[in-house]
Design brief:
7 helices, binds flavin mononucleotide, alpha+beta, globular, 16% strand, 5-stranded antiparallel β-sheet, 204 residues, NADH Oxidase
Protein backbone atom coordinates (compact mmCIF):
# COMPACT_ATOMS: atom_id res chain seq x y z
CA UNK A 1 0.00 0.00 0.00
CA UNK A 2 3.01 2.28 0.32
CA UNK A 3 4.47 1.96 -3.14
CA UNK A 4 4.58 4.99 -5.43
CA UNK A 5 1.48 3.97 -7.44
CA UNK A 6 -0.61 3.72 -4.26
CA UNK A 7 0.63 7.11 -3.11
CA UNK A 8 -0.33 8.65 -6.46
CA UNK A 9 -3.81 7.09 -6.23
CA UNK A 10 -4.13 8.49 -2.70
CA UNK A 11 -3.27 11.94 -4.07
CA UNK A 12 -5.83 11.52 -6.87
CA UNK A 13 -8.53 10.57 -4.36
CA UNK A 14 -7.61 13.61 -2.27
CA UNK A 15 -8.20 15.95 -5.21
CA UNK A 16 -11.74 17.26 -4.93
CA UNK A 17 -13.62 20.46 -5.78
CA UNK A 18 -13.59 22.63 -2.69
CA UNK A 19 -15.49 25.90 -2.75
CA UNK A 20 -15.29 27.13 0.87
CA UNK A 21 -11.89 28.84 0.93
CA UNK A 22 -10.13 31.56 2.91
CA UNK A 23 -7.53 34.08 1.77
CA UNK A 24 -4.76 32.14 3.51
CA UNK A 25 -2.35 29.56 2.12
CA UNK A 26 -1.02 26.40 3.76
CA UNK A 27 2.30 26.84 1.90
CA UNK A 28 4.64 29.73 1.05
CA UNK A 29 4.48 31.64 -2.23
CA UNK A 30 7.94 30.23 -3.06
CA UNK A 31 6.59 26.70 -2.65
CA UNK A 32 3.60 27.53 -4.90
CA UNK A 33 6.00 28.81 -7.57
CA UNK A 34 8.16 25.70 -7.20
CA UNK A 35 5.17 23.36 -7.61
CA UNK A 36 3.79 25.25 -10.61
CA UNK A 37 7.27 25.04 -12.17
CA UNK A 38 7.46 21.27 -11.55
CA UNK A 39 4.08 20.86 -13.25
CA UNK A 40 5.29 22.95 -16.21
CA UNK A 41 8.44 20.83 -16.52
CA UNK A 42 7.01 17.35 -16.07
CA UNK A 43 3.53 17.36 -17.63
CA UNK A 44 3.48 15.88 -21.15
CA UNK A 45 2.63 17.89 -24.27
CA UNK A 46 2.13 16.96 -27.94
CA UNK A 47 5.54 16.63 -29.68
CA UNK A 48 7.00 17.87 -26.36
CA UNK A 49 6.09 21.35 -27.62
CA UNK A 50 5.58 22.65 -24.04
CA UNK A 51 2.82 25.00 -25.11
CA UNK A 52 1.20 25.35 -21.66
CA UNK A 53 1.51 28.70 -19.93
CA UNK A 54 0.49 29.28 -16.32
CA UNK A 55 -0.09 32.71 -14.80
CA UNK A 56 -0.36 32.69 -11.01
CA UNK A 57 -2.28 35.50 -9.33
CA UNK A 58 -1.94 35.82 -5.55
CA UNK A 59 -3.70 37.91 -2.93
CA UNK A 60 -4.71 41.34 -4.31
CA UNK A 61 -3.96 40.25 -7.89
CA UNK A 62 -6.26 37.25 -7.41
CA UNK A 63 -8.98 39.54 -6.03
CA UNK A 64 -8.63 41.81 -9.07
CA UNK A 65 -9.32 38.83 -11.32
CA UNK A 66 -12.61 38.04 -9.63
CA UNK A 67 -13.58 41.72 -9.56
CA UNK A 68 -13.12 41.68 -13.34
CA UNK A 69 -15.17 38.49 -13.63
CA UNK A 70 -18.02 40.05 -11.67
CA UNK A 71 -17.90 43.20 -13.81
CA UNK A 72 -17.99 41.36 -17.13
CA UNK A 73 -20.66 38.93 -15.99
CA UNK A 74 -22.77 41.79 -14.57
CA UNK A 75 -22.79 43.41 -18.00
CA UNK A 76 -24.37 40.40 -19.70
CA UNK A 77 -26.38 38.41 -17.10
CA UNK A 78 -30.09 38.75 -16.34
CA UNK A 79 -30.34 40.51 -12.92
CA UNK A 80 -31.87 37.48 -11.20
CA UNK A 81 -29.12 35.12 -12.38
CA UNK A 82 -26.53 37.69 -11.36
CA UNK A 83 -27.90 37.99 -7.81
CA UNK A 84 -28.66 34.33 -7.21
CA UNK A 85 -25.83 32.62 -9.07
CA UNK A 86 -22.89 34.76 -10.08
CA UNK A 87 -22.56 37.19 -7.16
CA UNK A 88 -22.31 34.55 -4.40
CA UNK A 89 -20.24 32.22 -6.57
CA UNK A 90 -17.71 34.86 -7.58
CA UNK A 91 -17.54 36.19 -4.01
CA UNK A 92 -16.56 32.65 -2.98
CA UNK A 93 -13.71 32.53 -5.51
CA UNK A 94 -12.56 36.02 -4.53
CA UNK A 95 -12.39 34.93 -0.88
CA UNK A 96 -9.57 32.49 -1.79
CA UNK A 97 -5.81 33.06 -1.78
CA UNK A 98 -4.92 32.69 -5.45
CA UNK A 99 -5.86 31.63 -8.95
CA UNK A 100 -3.80 29.89 -11.61
CA UNK A 101 -4.71 30.81 -15.18
CA UNK A 102 -4.00 27.99 -17.63
CA UNK A 103 -3.22 29.11 -21.15
CA UNK A 104 -2.10 27.36 -24.31
CA UNK A 105 0.23 29.09 -26.76
CA UNK A 106 -0.38 27.53 -30.16
CA UNK A 107 2.81 28.95 -31.74
CA UNK A 108 5.11 26.04 -30.71
CA UNK A 109 2.64 23.54 -32.25
CA UNK A 110 2.22 25.30 -35.59
CA UNK A 111 5.38 23.89 -37.26
CA UNK A 112 4.17 20.35 -36.53
CA UNK A 113 0.93 21.07 -38.38
CA UNK A 114 2.98 22.17 -41.40
CA UNK A 115 5.22 19.10 -41.15
CA UNK A 116 2.33 16.64 -40.65
CA UNK A 117 -0.71 18.10 -42.48
CA UNK A 118 -2.75 14.93 -41.91
CA UNK A 119 -2.95 15.63 -38.17
CA UNK A 120 -2.84 19.45 -38.27
CA UNK A 121 -6.56 19.66 -37.49
CA UNK A 122 -6.12 17.62 -34.31
CA UNK A 123 -3.41 19.79 -32.78
CA UNK A 124 -5.70 22.29 -30.97
CA UNK A 125 -7.51 19.34 -29.38
CA UNK A 126 -4.22 17.81 -28.25
CA UNK A 127 -3.15 21.14 -26.78
CA UNK A 128 -6.40 21.10 -24.78
CA UNK A 129 -5.58 17.58 -23.57
CA UNK A 130 -2.19 18.75 -22.38
CA UNK A 131 -3.76 21.76 -20.65
CA UNK A 132 -6.17 19.42 -18.84
CA UNK A 133 -3.22 17.31 -17.71
CA UNK A 134 -1.50 20.40 -16.30
CA UNK A 135 -4.72 21.40 -14.53
CA UNK A 136 -5.19 17.97 -13.00
CA UNK A 137 -1.57 17.68 -11.91
CA UNK A 138 -1.49 21.07 -10.20
CA UNK A 139 -4.94 20.63 -8.62
CA UNK A 140 -3.85 17.27 -7.16
CA UNK A 141 -0.51 18.60 -5.93
CA UNK A 142 -1.91 21.76 -4.29
CA UNK A 143 -4.54 19.71 -2.46
CA UNK A 144 -1.82 17.30 -1.32
CA UNK A 145 -0.29 20.41 0.30
CA UNK A 146 -3.49 21.01 2.26
CA UNK A 147 -5.00 23.67 -0.02
CA UNK A 148 -8.54 23.53 -1.40
CA UNK A 149 -9.10 24.17 -5.12
CA UNK A 150 -11.89 24.48 -7.64
CA UNK A 151 -11.77 24.77 -11.41
CA UNK A 152 -13.55 27.61 -13.19
CA UNK A 153 -14.23 28.71 -16.77
CA UNK A 154 -14.81 32.43 -17.25
CA UNK A 155 -13.27 32.57 -20.72
CA UNK A 156 -13.98 34.22 -23.12
CA UNK A 157 -15.70 36.88 -20.97
CA UNK A 158 -12.58 37.85 -18.99
CA UNK A 159 -9.95 37.30 -21.70
CA UNK A 160 -9.36 40.83 -22.97
CA UNK A 161 -9.30 42.46 -19.53
CA UNK A 162 -6.92 39.81 -18.16
CA UNK A 163 -4.56 40.09 -21.12
CA UNK A 164 -4.42 43.84 -20.70
CA UNK A 165 -3.90 43.89 -16.92
CA UNK A 166 -1.26 41.16 -16.68
CA UNK A 167 0.40 41.58 -20.09
CA UNK A 168 -0.68 38.18 -21.36
CA UNK A 169 -0.18 37.84 -25.14
CA UNK A 170 -3.59 37.96 -26.79
CA UNK A 171 -2.66 34.94 -28.96
CA UNK A 172 -2.59 32.68 -25.91
CA UNK A 173 -5.83 30.81 -25.36
CA UNK A 174 -7.25 30.82 -21.82
CA UNK A 175 -8.45 27.33 -20.93
CA UNK A 176 -9.30 27.36 -17.22
CA UNK A 177 -8.87 29.08 -13.87
CA UNK A 178 -7.88 27.06 -10.78
CA UNK A 179 -8.94 28.89 -7.60
CA UNK A 180 -7.20 27.92 -4.37
CA UNK A 181 -7.01 28.80 -0.68
CA UNK A 182 -7.14 27.28 2.78
CA UNK A 183 -10.24 25.06 2.92
CA UNK A 184 -12.83 25.71 5.62
CA UNK A 185 -14.98 22.65 4.98
CA UNK A 186 -15.08 19.26 3.31
CA UNK A 187 -15.91 18.66 -0.36
CA UNK A 188 -19.50 17.96 -1.41
CA UNK A 189 -20.80 14.40 -1.62
CA UNK A 190 -19.84 12.72 -4.86
CA UNK A 191 -21.70 9.91 -6.67
CA UNK A 192 -19.77 7.35 -8.69
CA UNK A 193 -21.07 5.76 -11.90
CA UNK A 194 -20.75 1.96 -12.00
CA UNK A 195 -17.29 0.89 -13.14
CA UNK A 196 -18.94 -1.89 -15.19
CA UNK A 197 -20.12 0.83 -17.56
CA UNK A 198 -16.79 2.59 -17.68
CA UNK A 199 -13.85 0.20 -17.59
CA UNK A 200 -13.38 -2.68 -20.05
CA UNK A 201 -10.53 -5.18 -20.05
CA UNK A 202 -9.91 -7.79 -22.74
CA UNK A 203 -7.34 -10.58 -22.68
CA UNK A 204 -7.03 -10.99 -18.90
C1 LIG B 1 -13.13 19.93 -17.78
C2 LIG B 1 -13.78 20.28 -16.48
C3 LIG B 1 -14.54 21.45 -16.39
C4 LIG B 1 -15.07 21.85 -15.16
N1 LIG B 1 -15.69 23.08 -15.07
C5 LIG B 1 -16.09 23.51 -13.85
C6 LIG B 1 -16.60 24.82 -13.70
O1 LIG B 1 -16.64 25.61 -14.65
N2 LIG B 1 -17.01 25.21 -12.47
C7 LIG B 1 -16.94 24.38 -11.39
O2 LIG B 1 -17.31 24.78 -10.29
N3 LIG B 1 -16.44 23.11 -11.49
C8 LIG B 1 -16.01 22.68 -12.70
N4 LIG B 1 -15.47 21.43 -12.82
C9 LIG B 1 -15.40 20.55 -11.64
C10 LIG B 1 -16.36 19.37 -11.72
O3 LIG B 1 -17.68 19.82 -11.56
C11 LIG B 1 -15.96 18.39 -10.63
O4 LIG B 1 -14.62 17.99 -10.86
C12 LIG B 1 -16.85 17.16 -10.62
O5 LIG B 1 -18.16 17.51 -10.21
C13 LIG B 1 -16.33 16.08 -9.66
O6 LIG B 1 -16.14 16.59 -8.35
P1 LIG B 1 -14.71 16.61 -7.66
O7 LIG B 1 -13.85 17.61 -8.38
O8 LIG B 1 -14.97 17.00 -6.23
O9 LIG B 1 -14.13 15.23 -7.76
C14 LIG B 1 -14.92 21.01 -14.03
C15 LIG B 1 -14.20 19.83 -14.15
C16 LIG B 1 -13.63 19.48 -15.34
C17 LIG B 1 -12.81 18.22 -15.41
Amino acid sequence: MHNLASKIVKGMKGRRSIYALTNESTISDDRIKELVSEVALHTPSPFNCQSARMVVLLKEEHQKLWDIALEVVSATSPPEVLEKVYKPRIAGFRAGYGTVLFYEDFAPLKPFGEQFPMIAGKLPEWADHSSGMHQFALWTILEAEGLGCNLQHYSPMIDARVSELWNVPVEWSLKAQLVFGKPTGPPRDKAFESLDKRVFIHGE
